[in-house]
Design goal:
Layout (H helix, E strand, L loop, with lengths): L7 H5 L11 E4 L10 E4 L2 E4 L2 H9 L3 H14 L5 H16 L8 H4 L2 H9 L15 H5 L3 H12 L3
Parallel strand pairs: 1-3
Antiparallel strand pairs: 2-3
Helix pairs in contact: 3-6
């Protein structure tokens, strides 16, 4: 197991989201739960292994797009990582009420994740205007409405 303290230098090097054009992937497996491929953390992409980090750093694929959408979302939350994570946590708590109806509901019904999953295969999404504010549409919904939307969109996938 890797040293969990390796995450702290990333926090010390944090920059405002608007001052970042890209996010570097680094390996910090201690911080990622099983079932997840990557995680945005204060302007970095955390992965399970060095091989995964190297792949993300050398290829702009759907996973990289998903994580980059989170960077742009952080720009739309007062250009602050702390504001982004505070909102993310609040949305996660709201979604957790539906975990009996939907496994991992806190994550799946989070407006930030809903937007990122909706556009992770659209390579032009961030190029057209450079804003990722689709999460606001989902945030305006009640958690029950988000659940209905999730079921409607992902039922056939």
């Amino acid at each position: 197991m890797h040293n969990p303290l390796t995450i702290f230098p990333l926090i010390l090097r944090v920059r405002r989201p608007s001052r970042q054009q890209d996010m570097k992937a680094v390996s910090c497996p201690f911080w990622i739960r099983k079932g997840y491929e990557a995680m945005t953390f204060f302007g970095h992409i955390i992965t399970h292994s060095k091989d995964e980090a190297e792949h993300i750093n050398s290829h702009f694929d759907a996973l990289k797009q998903h994580e980059m959408i989170h960077l742009y979302q952080a720009r739309s939350t007062r250009d602050s990582w702390m504001c982004f994570y505070w909102k993310y946590f609040r949305f996660w708590l709201q979604g957790c009420r539906y975990r009996k109806k939907l496994p991992n509901a806190g994550y799946r019904l989070n407006p930030f994740e809903m937007e990122a999953y909706m556009h992770m295969y659209d390579k032009d999404y961030l190029k057209s205007g450079g804003k990722a504010e689709g999460w606001k549409k989902y945030a305006a919904m009640t958690p029950a409405q988000r659940l209905e939307e999730y079921i409607r969109v992902y039922r056939h996938r």
